Amino acid sequence: MKWLLYIGILLAGCTPALVKDIAYETAEEIECGYTVGEKLCNFTLMDQDENDWSLYEHSGKVTIVDLSVMWCGPCRAAALASDDIVNSFGHDKVQWVTILVEDVERNAPDLADLQAWVSAWHNHPSPVLAGDRDLLDVSGESGFPLTSWPTFVILDEDLNIVELIKGWNEQTIKLAVEKTLTK
């Protein structure tokens, strides 16, 4: 008789249960990352106008994500050239997004820092965003794999990472954008 009880328990354990609240992945739920070939993870940061700026709301163009700090000379040079780079390809095809990670005292930038950066180094309405070191991870597993200032992340129209460029070289940025546009 005990064996009938065991068989009954086993069979009951194999009976499918009716579960109502299962969360299935949908096409909108995507995997993301920070290395070449992955879709860049979304971020929402404050811009120079004190508005929230979210990456996933700005797809459809090749995007240059410029990770910079306020105390870096090459970062400033990149900011000065950014308008010419975007203009050379057209604002309808390319966008430049600067994420400032540190102010001149190496702290997270605030609104005044963003506005000072725009006033000193930008001639166009591209977003300058307040970031911090929490966005970074040298391994690229949970953040931007940054090892030098500035670092550029080139994204295609679907926000997939096409190239990571360490250091400032205007010609290298232009070639990466041109290559991305012609894919």
List the helices and strands and how they pair.
Layout (H helix, E strand, L loop, with lengths): L1 H13 L29 E3 L5 E3 L7 E8 L3 H17 L4 E9 L8 H11 L6 E3 L20 E5 L5 E6 L3 H12 L2
Parallel strand pairs: 3-4, 4-5
Antiparallel strand pairs: 1-2, 3-6, 6-7
Q: What is the helix fraction of residues, given as a range? A: 25-40%
Average pLDDT works out at: 87
Radius of gyration: 23 Å
**Range of strand content:** 15-25%
Order of helices and strands: HEEEHEHEEEH
Shape: globular
Distance between the termini: 71 Å
Count of DSSP-assigned helices:
4
**Number of β-strand runs:** 7
Short description:
The protein has 183 residues and is of the alpha/beta class. The chain has helices at residues 2-14, 73-89, 111-121, 170-181; strands at residues 44-46, 52-54, 62-69, 94-102, 128-130, 151-155, 161-166.
Would you write up a description of this structure?
This protein is α/β, with parallel strands linked by helices and 183 residues long. 29% of the residues lie in helices and 20% in strands. It contains four helices and seven strands, in the order αβββαβαβββα. The strands form two sheets. It has a five-stranded mixed sheet with strand order 5-4-3-6-7, covered by helices on one side. α2 (73-89) packs parallel to α4 (170-181). The longest helix has 17 residues, at 73-89. The radius of gyration is 23 Å and the shape is globular. It starts with a helix and ends with a helix. Residues 1-28 have low confidence and may be disordered.
